[in-house]
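pinning this so it doesn't scroll away 📌
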Amino acid sequence: MKAISLFLIGLLLLTGACAPVSSDKKEQTDKRIKELISQMTLEEKLGQMSQFDPGQLGGPENAKQAIKDGKVGSILNLVGAETINELQKVAVEESRLGIPLVIARDVIHGYRTIMPIPLGLAASWNAEIAEKTMAVSAVEAASEGIHWTFAPMIDVSRDPRWGRIAESCGEDTYLTSVMAKAMVKGFQGDDLSDPKTIAACAKHFVGYGAAEGGRDYNTTLIPEVQLRNDYLPPFKAAADAGVATFMSAFNDLNGVPTSGNEFTLKQILRQEWGYQGMVVSDWASIAEMIPHGYAANKKEAAERALMAGVDMEMASDCYAGNVKALLDEGKIDMATIDRYVANILRLKFDLGLFENPYTDETLAEKTLLAEKHKEIAQQAASESFVLLQNKNELLPLSNDISSVAVIGPLADSPHDQMGTWVFDGNKENSVTPLTALKAKLGDAKINFAKGLEISRTKSTEGFVAAVEAAKKSDVAVLFLGEESILSGEAHSLANLNLQGSQTELLEAVQATGKPVVVVIMAGRQLTIARELQLADAVLYAWHPGTMGGPAIADMLLGETVPSGKLPVTFPKTVGQIPIYYNHKNTGRPADYEQWTDINKIPAEATQHSLGNTSHYLDAGFEPLFPFGFGLSYSSFDYSNLELSANSMGTDGVIEVSIDLKNTGKYEAAEVVQLYIRDRFGSVTRPVKQLKGYQKVTLKPGETKNVVIQLKAKDLEFFNGKDYVVEAGDFDVWVGTNSQEGLHAEFSVNE
């Protein structure tokens, strides 16, 4: 290791850092932090509270000078161990106090080995594989000098028009909470000082996924009951899992921007939850309180963010330029600043940066794209795929097919299959479906025609070659969807149909009479009702990452079996949005007996509302596909639903069991899902809520008794005043998705 400053050596010796680890590590760290803060000037404290992109600092030499002067505590968007070590050396060896930088990066779903987008990972319903993918992301990022990622994004997201739904785990609070814990554990491991781990960041706190109209950065209006019951639990799960940092969001929540929101950041996060980690703002979100109309200027924005509890400011300079004046005016006190600096220093100590500030510059070559990492990426992709349709069991493709037409703009698009928010993945490392199918079947069996240059292409000049390829093949496989740039931050859409002339391409191929398989790669759920009519089989592959091609090829050819389940509801049309399974009921709930179809209304009908229910005349009340839906090449039978008791107390437990049998001919995994309904409450309750699940693998003909525990605590909700488990009657369903399942009843007693 290179030398560190004489001050820091003295400090470490003083606090016993070079001696055996103290039995009370926290106490020792707190002493070291207190000693450091006592030595710091106000400018150095504000430096620790400031994070910048290197470009904002005016180039490499200016950045080094700012770091040397103690004006920067963290750098983001810098990669490469050699480059990072160079700046770290300035911080550790040339700055007055030798405090190391913490280097941050958006490592969202992979670093060099790119995993499926988080929405795809959620479709796996496999927390273990989610944890593994984030552990791979961490070790790869760490090998290039990254200490901290701005992930996981655990905003509950119910509007597919919002581009960032791709980064989320979908619409359900419970599933998102499960995935939040797994991803935090994957990034952070058991010890943040382990050089193979990085600090995670729970974002965006809070409500950002409910942006009005699905327009990014937009207003969110969320009543407190809904905020606490639907949007906060995943963040509480992350906090309980020991997430190192939180990020305040961009959005205005009920009139108060979240980066200046004392209710969420101070009352809930700090006081109610007792969270002691560090809070960073989102990019310039403190300064953005000015255009929000919540702060008149940077000084006022700094005051509001400081009062709310944001420790570190990302990208903007409201703190650096205004804290001294705020202190002089008595609007904040030095104890507050010291507390925030302590939170930042504690993160650096927990990461082991004081003892090991530098990264081994030989690590990356041995770490990036390791074979084990690619195996995990391929498994994750495979488990994320959701089979939506499979007429006449077209899939898996028969072994004796003589030729396959591979068609579409995403069949051989290595960049786009990686998905949104990929900074460090290289398209050269992506294995596309075309490449993988050629490797499996040989060039002679593949007839490839792109059809469209990209997903947005409107020209039909490539259709002739695509139709010809289909005609001379036994089956046509079309790879459709959206390019990676069409989802993600600031990429909201009002129209969720396939872009360009993709549907027309599908129509032209379908007209050949050949069997048609459609594989859709996308960052969100799309409105694909027309495509379902034209295709025999539809496999939803999301944006599957580096190893998406081999995972798709294996599934098409039957070497793996689909097990993914939808983490979001698929609307028939954009006009149904928002549509999600765990909605509230109305006084006139919809059902088929009272559904009025627009096509059945006679001419000059008398205007009336008697007997009408809550639905759209032109789209009904059901989605295209429900939450939790997903087919398999095999089939499963659910039977013998039993409860260990018909009632329990408010601190009790009921075991819910069913027999699950694989009645098909393939070994396959099924996600057994448990939903409940609280029939009556002091505030209205959702029509269904996911409260547990198990992913079970069975051989053909095998039966397994699946038991899921349902605790009374799982029924708790916020009623506007307190968190309560209320006595009453409940329904429980166990089944294959949110619309199907065996039903039983139980009660909770006082």
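📌 and the second one:
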Amino acid sequence: MMKWIARIGLAVLALVAVAAIGLMVWEPLAATPGTAPPQREYRAEIVRDEWGVPHIYGRTDADVAYGVAQAHSEDDFFTLQDVIAMTRGRYGAIKGEEGATFDYVLALLGARELVDRQYTTLAPRTRALLEAYATGLNDYAAAHPGEVKLGNMFPVSGQDVATGFALRAPFFFGLNNWVGPLAKGETLLPDPGPKLHGPLPDRVEAENAGSNAFAIAPGRSDDGVTRLVSNSHQPWEGGVAWYELVVESGEGWHYAGANFPGSPFPFLGHNEDLGWTNTVNSPDMVDVYKLVLNDDGTQYRLDGKWLPLEKRRVRLSARFGPLVIPVWRDVYRSVHGPVIVNDNGAYAFRYGGMDRIDQLDAYYALNKAKTYDEWQSILATHAIPGTNFIYADKAGTIAYWYNASLPQRKAGPDWRGVLSGDRSDLVWQSLVPYDDLPHYVNPASGFLFNSNNTPMVAAGKSSNLSTSGFAPEMGIETKMTNRAYRAEKLLDEPGPISRERLERIKYDTGWERVDYVKTVLDGIDGLDTRGDPLLTKAKAIMQGWDLTSDGAGRADALALLVMRPAMGDSYSLKPITPAKKLLTDAAEFLMEHYGRLDPPLQDVLRLRHGKGTGRFAVDLPLDGGSDTLRASTLWDVEPDGRLKVRHGDSFIQFVEWAPGKPVTSQSIQPFGSATTRPDSVHYTDQSALFVQHKLKPVHFTRADALRNAVSRKMVTHRARSD
């Protein structure tokens, strides 16, 4: 009997081992093989300057796009693969449960199916660019098989690249603030804000938690120079971290700026004639509908008729250690749009810009625009669904467009709440005309700015817009940020806005005692701290705060920790956390990790990248706050109690057009061009300048790039005859 038991035990162990091996290897075998782009020849030159920034040259735009993929892969193939995995619904096999969430959203939105339907509607030159870029990724993967994360990931196609845009674009105007709660079965609450609706999102934890932008007309500067400042706040690593590059082709494409992993062209920056930058806006572009289902959940009612609820079963994968677990989920769709079924019912959502991929055409065309009229006509197509655009050019024109694909809603219904899903008259079919969106062109003040605030405040008190011209159902945000209060105050002061003054404004660390800042400070002033020595001392320190986060004051570290959660509440339109809790939590944190309430801010807030013993690792002091113009927005608490910033000031660029002279620009990033290559000198070579508020030159012309080149190489792809 014991022998039989032993044999059974061995058999069970063998089955477990076989199952474990199967869970280790099944995912690449089950994945749909990729499709290589059409075979064409490409030839590009990659010139790297002293900062490792790639300058990519080619005879055609497609040649340049091939070179962009090769250069970016040399610096960050690790992240590029994550983006490709997202487009193929395989990110869970890399990133586990977090990645599987992206794969679910890919299926829910039908992003891949959308691209399959509309890919051939893109301009031929755009498709050529995407396919060249995909070929560059494929060639790098073939030449470096040891870096490939997943089997059967390559080759990738132009459609894969396009799918990345279709998947990620809606999340820049906050679609995740609705999808997340619905998927979790949470109740959707109407916003207390007067012009927004939907759940109460934790916006500050979104990947796009901020940005600043400034444009100064030549008549307001002290030297007749037109200036544009790009000051995006993005994560410092990952799929939406900026990558700087300069591109130039024989077909007239010449642009200096930055893109995200997975893009063949820059998203912001400048060409010879004009430039623009972006800040995230918060338009109400999403409407949620509760559907009425029949008893078996296969149909929904619309205008008294029963229609079939589309249903599709998808396989997701989630990595747990060495094992990859298959997970099956159902995704649904109605005439309204994607549908999420949870314990509370079935909810459809509809959003501006859905079912369109022509933003690929638009961004590419913007890169090559020569005049304001040409540039603005591209935006007017509504192809790019969201984000503010701040513009300047060599002719001295400055402009700001509140770019948003706002639904054309009728007056009357409560668009802030969950709508009835059985009324077709609530299913809007068109967008607010572009010319009806808030915008400014050459305001009398001579300046424009945005700091993720309402577009009604952008040009100073003499030139701001009135809210009276915009209907509530448009859903234009009315909120301000501390950065916006500071920017308007500093820009609106009399006198010319010189380059030096503009730099002071950009790196300003001040706080205005208004809005949530006032609420918190007034709350601290009113605290009764008798009997609590720690809170008494913390209150006294906060009452001596000079309202800056420059690191010079005794209260700066304590204030940093107090204001960060309050900012999150304000951005999320939630009630501000009580002052006593804010102060107590901050004080206890500092005492636990530093043994004092007033450590220097520079000891607490750090720019860290790489392991401490690494050749190019850095650990440098930072300034700024979560809602100051010098932004250190989000951080992780390290084991030693230091705050490692991971989000805030990222790609910064100053662009200038002096009268009768070619465009010039300077830029900086927190780390370097090779952010995932710890053995590269360009892993962190910009960090020291970044923490000192300094910029490096952008070598825009080929002659300048060659004078400052540290490496040159040709990359080629020869078309196969088969």
